[in-house]
Amino acid sequence: MTADKNYLTTSTGAPVGDNQNSLTAGQRGPVLIQDIHLLEKLAHFNRERVPERVVHAKGAGAHGYFEVTNDVSKYTKAAFLSEVGKRTPMFIRFSTVAGELGSADTVRDPRGFAVKFYTEEGNYDLVGNNTPVFFIRDAIKFPDFIHTQKRHPQTHLKNPNAVWDFWSLSPESLHQVTILMSDRGIPATLRHMHGFGSHTFKWVNEQGEGVWVKYHFKTEQGIRNLDPKLAAQIAGDNPDYHTEDLFRAIERGEFPAWKLYVQIMPLADADTYRFDPFDVTKVWSQKDYPLIEVGRMVLNRNPENYFAEVEQVTLSPGNFVPGIEASPDKMLQGRLFAYADAHRYRVGANHNALPINKPQCPVHNNQRDGAMRPDNNGGSGVYYEPNSYGGPTEAPQHRISAFPVTGTADSVAYDRDDHYTQAGDLYRLMSEPERAYLIDTIVGAMKPVERDDIKLRQIGHFYKADPEYGRRVAEGLGLPVPQGE
């Protein structure tokens, strides 16, 4: 076999002599079990799919870079944000939330907006959505919420009864429901939508001083959305429309870009702000905490292999770097565990050693062995700490910043339960055509709900946000506004 010939081989590198015909006993067979190429080929085919993500299954991704355009070093010591002009390679995965891997791109659903920055201090993942808020604010409710978005266990059909029953019993969802049912519920493309970190995080500077922070990615392509009828048509004609659009745009050299801004809140303000700043169902007013420019993200390279990169990329909000830390956000606290655990189940314990996830800086730890270890498994190096043999040691200078913890251990809700002001403010900001669109969408989504008590309960939430909001939904459904609202 000549070295320059592109021969087909087995996974062990042996050349394949015949890839058209199985090895048989005579012309008719039967097939011989010694046809190792056939057995390997069929066995691998049976195992080509890793389990799809429970949420965010359908996605698209791209490589690019992040460039700092404004000095924010007084807020954070994160090295990749340390100086204007500094560029950091990154990968982004966009996704729908509720649908399966083969679902249509143009459904009404939040979009995942998950960015992996390959920094010199390790990978930093910002795993957010195209909305600044979420449906729930405590991770203990997340499995139940996602179950309502999935299929009925008997009919295997989507279940609007479960969707609206859960939302009507979880009034904290009202803000996100209003956004989802608005004209921004179906982005025209992945390039024409904003992205948000959604949660509150903590930035810490070189002096150990901290601030609370929220992330906003503003698309430079402008906001564009799809009319529901056109979205439904595209779902039938080209269910991979968003995936194709992103790939073709980058292929043409039309590199999508976003400006990154942050809102900064002094630590002490968390105790006095009119909304709990750690409640992910709420936003911070930009009048109170204006946007501060940080940098620019540009997507300029398509994946070479969808499975190896888009499907096997593993992003977790728990992947921090020095200078960026968690906040007490209860939803975030649950995600710190759940996302990495999902990756360990879905891709394997060594998922961070795969090329798409591997940090572009040296990695030193004592995590050894496990299935599908793709590197040298630490070689003959020291495999425990502390040690007397020059192995890697802890770095006290990178301890997280101290924070006070008080109170009695108990299962308690946030102490501020105003779920209506921000949803009502959003409704009142809308123009009349935007309000009409919102009402029509909600009415259309609620009509299939079989029980009037569920509809009436949800109408009550709309009414509390804004009386006109509730009345118009009630009129569209032919139901009265609940008495006493």
TrEMBL record:
Location of the region described as Disordered in the Swiss-Prot/TrEMBL record: 1-23
Gene3D superfamilies: Catalase core domain (2.40.180.10)
Heme is among the record's keywords: yes
Any GO MF annotation of the entry: catalase activity
Keyword set includes Oxidoreductase: yes
Domain Catalase core: 9-393
Compositionally skewed regions (Polar residues) per UniProt: 7-23
Listed InterPro entries: Catalase, Catalase_3, Catalase_AS, Catalase_clade1/3, Catalase_core, Catalase_haem_BS, Catalase_immune_responsive, Catalase_sf
Pfam families associated with the record: Catalase, Catalase-rel
This protein's UniProt keywords: Heme, Hydrogen peroxide, Iron, Metal-binding, Oxidoreductase, Peroxidase
Family to which this protein belongs: Belongs to the catalase family.
Name of the featured protein: Catalase
